[in-house]
Write a structure and sequence with these properties.
Layout: H1 3-14, H2 18-31, E1 35-37, E2 49-55, E3 59-65, E4 71-77, E5 82-93, E6 96-104, E7 117-125, E8 134-139, E9 173-176, H3 185-194, E10 201-210, E11 215-217, E12 223-226, H4 229-243, E13 254-260, H5 277-288, H6 292-301, E14 303-307, E15 310-311, E16 333-336, H7 347-360, E17 364-367, H8 380-386, E18 390-395, E19 397-399, E20 406-409, H9 410-424
Parallel strand pairs: 1-2, 4-13, 4-14, 14-18, 15-19, 16-17
Antiparallel strand pairs: 2-3, 3-13, 5-6, 6-9, 7-8, 7-10, 11-12, 12-20, 16-18, 19-20
Helix pairs in contact: 2-4, 4-9, 5-6, 7-9
The structure holds zinc ion.
The site of zinc ion has 6 residues, from helix 4.
């Protein structure tokens, strides 16, 4: 495994929830000389400064401020499909403790069966001020639950039919409670995990994650198999791209990465790409440097690279791919285009990325949907409707998007980092 792949997999291993994605990103940025700015207090920005701002714990923006120069942006998302615990999730069935969960995002349910799963997210504890509870990140950091399949002997048609219902087939098994399953056993277990009295736990956002590390595979180790490639490959590329400029030579202009939560559920939340967070932060930066006009001018000539994974051609299902445009794993960064604008981009934006790729020797390829298939969407169109900047959707090609474990080519991550670097460094 190359050092590059090892670094990506270590990052993914830490980023087990959007909260943890942001914490891991902050650690990376601090080590690269970035300083934290408060979301809720005024800023002073030094020329040549490197900063990040945490927005509600699950969204992170980081930027460098140089002399007068262009606005260059890259964006990705910190969230990924999973099963999220509902409130009061602790159920008891014949002495088994199970958790009541609901899907977050469009996950492939069957890929979550029979795996050791961890639990991570955040918990809100009673604080001095009712408006400011004490919110703490939580990662059980061990396998805690699993969602067992039904034996084939009791479900003879599983391979032909095999439908799964998110409410009745997907509740994780959390333990053998026997007669101990009285009262709110989940609340008691969570409080004991945190070492606080049960009545101090006011609420939580906790999700399952596959308790397993990514690895390389393929005869030459050329592939990566890992949870959360969507979209931590892009978060990692944004972080690497922004930090690539040497501390003593921050590039002219404003270079910013926006790592948004809630893309998998439509982005329309206070910290999602459908909010005013990006516009507000940019206005704040330009205001601090002397005036809103500068913001408008910067946006009009700026550029945003929206980074999210793409569908690579599947060897068993090549017919699902467009008959002519056929991106493959290992073929380089994918430029995603759709007439519907479910992916952001126009001829000018495509041209910009193609030229940056040519100048940096980065391989690129194209993706379009089959004309009879709707395909997916990204945050690119949503963010660029609020900050009207030229935008292009790109990403690494993967297989099994939204499975508990996805597959990509190791070389594509390096190409992606190289391209993001051309935009940001
Ligand atoms: Zn994604």
């Amino acid at each position: 495994m190359t050092a590059e792949t090892e670094a990506l997999l270590s990052f993914i291993d830490r980023a087990v929830s959007p909260v943890h994605t942001v914490l891991a990103a902050e650690d990376f940025l601090r080590a690269a000389g970035f300083a934290e700015l408060p979301w809720a207090a005024p800023w002073t920005l030094a020329a040549g400064g490197r900063y990040f701002v945490n927005v509600y714990g699950t969204t992170l923006l980081a930027f460098t401020v140089g002399e007068d120069g262009p606005l260059r942006l890259a964006a990705a998302h910190t969230d990924f499909p999973c099963l999220r615990l509902k409130s009061a999730p602790g159920l008891v069935r014949e002495g088994y403790g199970v958790l009541n969960v609901e899907p977050y995002g469009g996950l492939i349910l069957r890929s979550w069966l029979d795996r050791p799963l961890g639990l991570a997210g955040r918990v809100a504890l009673r604080g001095e001020d009712a408006f400011h509870p004490r919110v703490v990140p939580v990662d059980f950091a061990r396998p805690v639950v699993t969602i067992p399949s039904l034996a084939i002997h009791m479900d003879r048609k599983v391979n032909e039919e095999g439908k799964l219902n998110a409410q009745t087939d997907m509740l994780p098994l959390a333990g053998l409670l026997g007669d101990a399953g009285e009262g709110d056993w989940w609340q008691a277990a969570l409080a004991s995990e945190l070492g606080v009295p049960a009545d101090e736990v006011l609420s939580f956002e906790l999700s399952t994650y596959p308790y397993e590390r990514g690895c390389t595979l393929g005869l030459a180790g050329e592939l990566i198999s890992s949870p959360r490639l969507d979209n931590l490959t892009s978060v990692w590329a944004c972080l690497r791209g922004l930090a690539a400029a040497p501390v003593e030579a921050v590039p002219a202009g404003v270079h910013l990465i926006a790592l948004f939560d809630n893309e998998e559920v439509g982005s329309r939340t206070k910290q999602g790409a459908g909010s005013l967070v990006l516009a507000d932060v940019l206005r704040r930066i330009y205001r601090t440097r002397g005036g809103d006009d500068a913001y408008d001018e910067a946006v009009a000539s700026g550029f945003l690279l929206s980074v999210d994974v793409a569908h690579g051609l599947h060897p068993d299902h090549a017919d699902k791919c467009d008959p002519a445009v056929r991106p493959v794993l290992g073929g380089g960064v994918v430029l995603k285009q759709a007439a519907s604008q479910s992916y952001a981009g126009d001829a000018e934006a495509v041209a910009i990325v193609r030229e940056l790729a040519r100048r940096s020797g980065t391989p690129v390829q194209d993706f379009v949907n089959r004309s009879d298939s709707r395909g997916g969407s990204t945050l690119g169109s949503i963010a660029s409707a609020l900050v009207p900047v030229r935008t292009m959707d790109v990403g690494a090609a993967i297989l099994a998007m939204h499975s508990a474990r996805e597959t990509m080519a190791a070389a594509d991550e390096e190409a992606l980092i190289a391209l993001v670097r051309m935009v940001l460094a």
